[in-house]
């Protein structure tokens, strides 16, 4: 198949591209760095012509709900409009398990943006799969960076079932290869449940630093709300990727 990967240079987009190529598919990578800005739509029709499916693995780094919603809905509309125009019948969008739940996204604008993205795809006339993934181990460096001031790191309490980004990418590619039509939401999660503090402590124990930091004071507080702290990010029904944090930490280099 010929698959367009929007966000092809990102954490998951890169892995989705690698997995697609490993399975013998042709990949059309899109990112601003590669010359295509999905939010303006310039060049999209040409890039998408002849594709069998499109993956939305785009991202914006922001805490603003308004900015996130604008980015994700604009990009979803551009991708669905181009898909309809050139006859691409299928979109797979990478999203976050639990983010669409108002109790979970109440205190986190970025998640409200993801909820808006999911609604934009639900309203579109192109068959779309929303892949609801739990947090990736690879995300934890960013979480530590954002939650640190000097030597003090105060993490948001998130009860989660994290997995490797490579495991999430394989799940996305399995879905691309599944030829069933229609809209659906499917979820993937890791094999163990733990909180942000436990994950970060274990990564720090193994690696000594995260994001170039060795926090002297490391705490967690439920500042993203009770729902997030109490398991709102863990889907009840999900495919379980088997790689544990321990196994991922032993990978050298990490996949
Ligand atoms: N991190 C997690 O644990 C997690 C878990 C579940 C789901 N997700 C979701 O997975 C998705 C991908 O996240 P990620 O962490 O892999 O992203 P990322 O590493 O931040 O990469 C984002 C990608 O999007 C591209 N991009 C951004 N704006 C663009 C634009 N206007 N036009 C074209 N390309 C653009 C970037 O390239 P350029 O900058 O060159 O444009 C890059 O390739 C997000 O929607 C996120 O919410 C993340």
Automatic annotation (TrEMBL):
Q: Which residues belong to any copy of the NAD(P)-binding domain?
A: 36-132
Q: Superkingdom of the source?
A: Bacteria
Which InterPro entries would you find in this protein's record?
Answer: ComplexI_NDUFA9_subunit, NAD(P)-bd_dom, NAD(P)-bd_dom_sf
Q: Taxonomically, what lineage is the organism?
A: Bacteria, Bacillati, Actinomycetota, Actinomycetes, Micrococcales
Start and end residues of each stretch annotated as Disordered = 234-255
User: What protein is this chain from?
Assistant: NAD(P)H-binding protein
Q: Which organism is it from?
A: Nesterenkonia aerolata
Signal peptide range: none
């Amino acid at each position: 198949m010929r698959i367009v990967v929007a966000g092809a240079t990102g954490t998951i987009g890169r892995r989705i591209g690698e997995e697609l190529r490993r399975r013998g598919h042709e990949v059309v990578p899109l990112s601003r760095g590669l010359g295509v800005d999905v939010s303006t739509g310039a060049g999209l029709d040409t890039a998408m012509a002849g594709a069998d499916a499109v993956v939305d693995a785009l991202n914006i780094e922001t805490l603003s709900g308004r900015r996130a919603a604008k980015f994700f809905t604009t990009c979803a509309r551009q991708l669905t409009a181009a898909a309809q125009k050139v006859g691409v019948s299928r979109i797979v969008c990478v999203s976050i398990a639990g983010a669409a739940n108002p109790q979970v996204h109440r205190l986190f604008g970025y998640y409200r943006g993801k909820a808006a993205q999911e609604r934009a795809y639900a309203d579109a006339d192109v068959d779309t799969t929303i892949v609801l993934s739990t947090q990736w181990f690879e995300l934890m460096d960013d979480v530590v960076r954002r939650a640190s001031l000097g030597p003090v790191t105060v993490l948001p309490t998130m009860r989660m079932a994290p997995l490797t980004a490579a495991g999430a990418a394989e799940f996305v590619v399995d879905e691309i290869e599944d030829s069933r039509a229609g809209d659906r939401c499917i979820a993937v999660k890791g094999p163990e449940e733990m909180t942000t503090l436990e994950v970060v402590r274990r990564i720090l124990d193994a690696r000594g630093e995260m994001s170039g930091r060795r926090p002297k004071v490391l705490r967690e507080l439920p500042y993203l709300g009770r729902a997030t702290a109490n398991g709102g990010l863990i889907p009840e029904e999900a495919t379980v990727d088997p790689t544990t944090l321990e196994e991922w930490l032993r990978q050298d280099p990490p996949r």
